[in-house]
Amino acid sequence: MRIGNPLPAGLRGKPSVRMWIWLTVAVVAVTGGLLYVDGHRVSAAPHADHAQCDEVVSRLPDDIPGASRDWTLGEGVAAWGGQAAVFRCGAEELPPNINLCVTVDGVDWVLDEERLKRDGVSVLRTYGRSPAVEFTYTGPREEVGGILTALDPAVKWLPQKRKCVGLQDADVV
C-alpha cells in the first residue's frame, strides 16, 4: 500500500517565494511576541504564592512618583517606570539585623546597605510583616521616600509582628 503526499496539490512542489515570505513574517512575529512578553516578566519572590500576596498586589497604586505602572508577568510582583521600581511580595522575612531601618507611615523598611554601596541600587525589605515585601529601585535615592509612601496603603495592610528598634531602644547590658 502506497501512502500519498498529505499536502494539498498547491503545496506539493517547490516552496514559492510567497510562502517563504509568509513563513519569515510568522517566525519574526512569534519571536517578537515572545521577547515582548519576556521583557515584562519579573522574577517572583520565594513565597509569592502566599495567600495575602494577591491582595497586596491588587492594592498597589497605578502610579508612583515619577512613573506609571508597567504590565508585568510574575506572581506577587509589580513594576513601574520600565522596571526601574520593582515590588515583590513573598520575600524572605528578615531576622534582626543592624542595617538601616526607616519607618515610613508606620511601615518598617530595612535597606540593604551592601547592595546600595556595591551596585547603587536601593533594595528595601519590610521588617516584621508577613509575608515580607521587597522593593528595588534603580533611580535617585532621594525619590525612595515618596515612593514608599505611595506603596504604604498596600503594605500597611499586612499584619505587623515586630518593629525596628534603634540603639536608644535597646536594652543596656
Task: Describe the structure in your own words.
By secondary structure, the protein is α+β, with helices and mostly antiparallel strands. It is built from four helices and eight strands. A six-stranded antiparallel sheet has the order 3-4-8-7-6-5. Strands 1-2 form a two-stranded antiparallel ribbon. The longest helix is centred in the first third of the chain and has 22 residues.
In short:
The protein is of the alpha+beta class and 173 residues long. Helices cover 29% and strands 20% of the residues. The chain has a 6-stranded antiparallel sheet.
Number of helices: 4
Uncertain stretches of 5 or more adjacent residues = 33-40
Query: Helix- and strand-based class?
Result: alpha+beta
Radius of gyration: 24 Å
Mean pLDDT, nearest integer?
82
Distance between the termini: 94 Å
Overall number of strands: 8
- Into which percentage range does the β-strand content fall? 15-25%
Strand arrangement, major sheet: 3-4-8-7-6-5
Largest sheet: 6 strands, antiparallel
> How would you sum up the global shape?
elongated
Return the string of H and E elements: HHEEEEEEHEEH
Q: What fraction, in percent, of the residue positions are helical? A: 25-40%
